[in-house]
Amino acid sequence: MTPPWLEQYASGQKTGYAQAFMAYAEYYGVDGSADDDPEIEERIAMHRQPLVGYASRTGTRRNLAALKGADWRLLVSAKGELRTEGIDRYALDNGAWTAYQLGQPFDEHAFSVAVERLGERADWLVLPDIVMGGMASLDYSLKWLERLRGMPCRMLIAVQNGMQVEDLASLLSPAVGIFIGGSTEWKEQTAHVWGSLARRRHCYLHVGRVNSARRIRICAAAGADSFDGTSVSRYAKTLPRLDRATRQRDMFAAAHDGLEEAQRATADLLI
């Protein structure tokens, strides 16, 4: 099931943020094409905005007020209540992690309903994946990427243990980005690699399940655009410390590398 409003974007009757940004990036050679063809020149430097924190959806007024005050955004799960709680900027999670924790199969219907209700105005959405599923997860995500072609928001592919850089490289662009999933240990060990790949392809980079200042620093070093976590949704008192960590820029992040440097950082690398 696809949203009834999607056809207007897929046919070109409407232009969403992802399509508009992709056209802009293509014009300036920062759509990933320079990574494919050395004859193409990147005509401008793409600078990432400050790291953005997304908190898992909560209905607690005190915590919501704290999130709004700090300009954090909301991550709404397809397996939860489909409400944005008055927060304008939000992203849509597919609910696979929640289903995995509960020992349940992925709920395609719930995800489809969530996309129909909230997908059009989301910052981005995570394509359905198989937690810890390796290449089977990538194949599953690609089926949904085709099914949702034309989405006005960015779509992110969840990377899992067992995936390699070149499995994804040709799929990525300013409209299709990376969501770093997988095990916690693997996530921390490989974040810098995915950061270099995101620099090569000029794609969005998000890191899932980040609940400490140390992990936020890992995200910053990788050049991530954003991260999500549950800590501030549950305990508002943790927000000031985590928010301070998001505002500490990493001058040596992978996002600041030149294209050739980013290519060298991911060449012949097994993760």
Automatic annotation (TrEMBL):
Listed GO biological process terms: tRNA modification
Lineage: superkingdom: Bacteria
Name of this chain's protein: Queuine tRNA-ribosyltransferase
Taxonomic source organism: Caballeronia novacaledonica
